[in-house]
Amino acid sequence: MSLVKSLQKAIEYMEDHLLDDITIKDIAKQAHLSPHHFQRTFVILTDVTVAEYLRRRRLTKAAQELLNSDTKVIDLAYKYGYQTPESFAKAFYRQHGLTPSEARRRMGSLQSYNRLTIQVNLKGAEPMHYRLIERDAFQIVGVKKSFECNEKFDQTKEISRFWAQIGQDGTIDRLLGLNDGQIKGLIGATVDYDERGNEIEYWIGTEFKGNTPDGFDRYEVSSVKWAVFEAVGPVTVVVPETWKKIYSEWFPSNDYAHSSAPSLEVYQSPDPSSPTAKTEIWVPVK
């Protein structure tokens, strides 16, 4: 349960500093995770980004104060992190469907987002298909790109564009032609986090045993134990579902923790939207 406890500690930190200008680095530090790993885990378990959670909670608190005090709207705007009353009113309306003045006159209902508590499902009603593998170090060859790692940047959208780009320029076909290792298919992985630049390094590649081909980079995956999970169905549906089960069900039910090696998503089917598409998620464990 250490992962759940560390995430809950980070949530408590957010709640205690809702009115402060906190960053994803500050929050992730409370959970002893990198900003990228914390953000990814938080989204997997809650279906909301850290930035969106903070925005919802601040506007919930602002609405409560609006109803129960005579504080001016302009003062509330500055207090809850908005530079102008207009930007505050716009955000307030998006969440509550009312303007601040309408809310103060009690002209409709407000939408409250309560303090978050991370819970896990230990019922295990549906089996999770996985296998444990111990492997020596192996090599991935492919292409890489750095992405910002902050609470406002949509990494998922940018990574999807990266995949589309290399699909159009023929890179994916070249990688599939090189694949000669134990892992069959294309690999997507975040392999590094740069704390100074607050960036992640995302790779698209394949396992390959020879010298690095021209036009590609090489990454050495260290020797670790892997829990390999199977997912069948459209990638955009089954991969997020499987990740959620891994963190909310499998980790709390087993004596393993995520190790320092990168997790791998292995795409084994030519059509990722197919109902029979096969994907494996390789999670390094200790």
What is the CATH top level name of the largest domain? Alpha Beta
| Content-based structural category | alpha+beta
Shape, principal axes of CA atoms: elongated
Which bin fits the share of residues in helices? 40-55%
- How many independent structural domains? 2
Summarize the biggest pleated sheet. 8 strands, antiparallel
Provide the CATH topology of the largest domain.
Multidrug-efflux Transporter 1 Regulator Bmrr, Chain A
Number of strands: 8
The spatial strand order of the largest sheet comes to: 1-6-8-7-3-4-2-5
Give the termini separation.
15 Å
The CATH superfamily title of the largest domain: Regulatory factor, effector binding domain
> What series of H and E elements makes up the topology?
HHHHHHHEEHHEEEEHEE
Report the β-strand fraction as a percent range: 15-25%
What is the overall number of helices? Answer: 10
Mean pLDDT: 88
Gross CATH architecture of the largest domain: Alpha-Beta Barrel
